[in-house]
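Priority: medium. Attachment 1 of 2:
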């Protein structure tokens, strides 16, 4: 709930409340929206990058869902129903697209602004604090991730890969997934020392993309591999979106959502604390 409250205040809600009483005055002043406004103006001429965020999962869907799917055949869905391979992997690709967009927006771009452009030093000379910077960058990643997710969901709808009216909630959940990974990406970037450290980002993201129930059902793994897969943040995102698009609604979804909520709150707190240490000392 704290993460949601912070997002609400960042978008312009009143500054009074628990957060303002707990955080030091210089840490958060409730103007993260100004950094979002700056990012939107800077990004007006890079629409091709936003388009690529929709095309990447589409290419995977065509190659894996239509190409490999012809060899795989039907796959058992989360509720025991028979699904085409394309319908099985499409929610996983949606979750992976949200993850990739969030991580890359809050790692490479933020690192350049932090270490080379010195943008955040200039921002702190204005009435903004480190928490505003963290929330501003995370919210901008959320906006871009929302555009990626909405575009891919439209493709899923047009191609008949959605079989449940519960899929109407897939876009809010995809935004939640983007928010969670953007928070962690922002926190991780604050620990990066050089461009070489970003190899660790790939080391984390690529295995999650391949082995988080994205392309292969969890049941085919050994018990140990299943436990490792279920510890992956992307697994919880994939499961939530697959349940919604196939109609496999159950109480277990609350557990997946709680995992991502804790991840979001931890990422925001670590990111803001690290930015305070890096920029104010």
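Attachment 2 of 2:
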């Amino acid at each position: 709930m704290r993460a949601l409250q912070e997002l609400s205040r960042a978008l312009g809600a009143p500054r009074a409340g628990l957060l303002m009483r707990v955080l030091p005055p210089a840490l958060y002043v409730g103007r993260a929206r100004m950094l979002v406004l700056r990012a939107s103006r800077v990004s007006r001429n890079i629409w091709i990058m936003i388009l690529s965020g929709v095309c990447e999962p589409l290419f995977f869907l065509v190659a894996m869902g239509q190409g490999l799917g012809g060899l795989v055949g039907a796959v058992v869905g989360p509720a025991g129903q028979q699904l085409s391979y394309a319908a099985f992997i499409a929610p996983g690709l949606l979750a992976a697209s949200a993850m990739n967009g969030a991580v890359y927006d809050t790692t490479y771009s933020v690192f350049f602004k932090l270490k080379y452009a010195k943008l955040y030093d200039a921002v702190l000379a204005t009435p903004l604090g480190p928490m505003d910077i963290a929330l501003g960058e995370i919210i901008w990643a959320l906006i871009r991730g929302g555009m990626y997710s909405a575009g891919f969901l439209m493709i899923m709808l047009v191609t008949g890969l959605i079989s449940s009216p519960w899929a109407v909630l897939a876009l809010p959940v995809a935004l939640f997934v983007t928010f969670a990974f953007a928070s962690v990406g922002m926190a991780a970037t604050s620990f990066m020392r050089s461009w070489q450290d970003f190899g660790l980002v790939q080391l984390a993201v690529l295995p999650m993309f391949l082995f988080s129930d994205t392309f292969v059902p969890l049941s085919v793994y050994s018990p140990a591999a299943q436990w490792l897969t279920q510890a992956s943040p992307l697994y919880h995102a994939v499961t939530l979106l697959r349940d919604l698009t196939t109609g496999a609604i159950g109480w277990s979804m609350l557990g997946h959502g709680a995992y991502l909520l804790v991840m979001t709150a931890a990422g925001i707190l670590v990111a803001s604390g690290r930015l305070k240490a890096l920029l104010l000392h």
